[in-house]
Design goal:
Structural class: mainly alpha
CATH class of the largest domain: Mainly Alpha
CATH architecture of the largest domain: Orthogonal Bundle
Number of domains: 2
Shape: elongated
Helix content: 55-70%
Largest sheet: none
Number of helices: 7
Distance between the termini: 19 Å
Order of helices and strands: HHHHHHH
Length: 117
């Protein structure tokens, strides 16, 4: 695995995709599901390239919003941007309480390829 955060993310997303399919899936088939070329996914996995914001938006439709964070972008959602603004102004001791409250509001655990913060 690469030391590149996005490379690790996409490798783990590929493994998770195969698990959801219940079978081994080629990188080419994974790329097709993402709407990009096999060469591009291979470059991501090797850490040679990172996707642009426009490609991340497309891939997020398949992999979920965590792809934005893994690629180093903030989603183009005004509410997410507002939440981040508030988050950065919170005292550190308040952040765990806020996270606990958010978790209690939803029964669906967010999709993540890995648990890096």
């Amino acid at each position: 695995m690469s030391d590149n955060k996005f490379a690790r993310y996409i490798e783990q997303a590929y493994i998770a995709y195969q698990a959801r399919q219940g079978r081994r899936v080629s990188v080419s088939e994974f790329a097709k599901a993402l709407g990009v070329s096999q060469a591009l996914v291979s470059h991501w996995m090797s850490g040679v390239r990172k996707p642009g914001r426009d490609v991340v938006a497309k891939v997020a439709n398949v992999l979920g919003p965590d792809v934005y964070i893994a690629a180093g972008y903030i989603p183009d959602d005004p509410q997410v941007q507002e939440l981040l603004t508030y988050w950065f102004h919170l005292p550190p001791e308040e952040k765990p309480k806020i996270l606990a409250n958010l978790r209690s509001l939803t029964s669906q655990k967010p999709k993540t390829a890995h648990a890096e913060q």
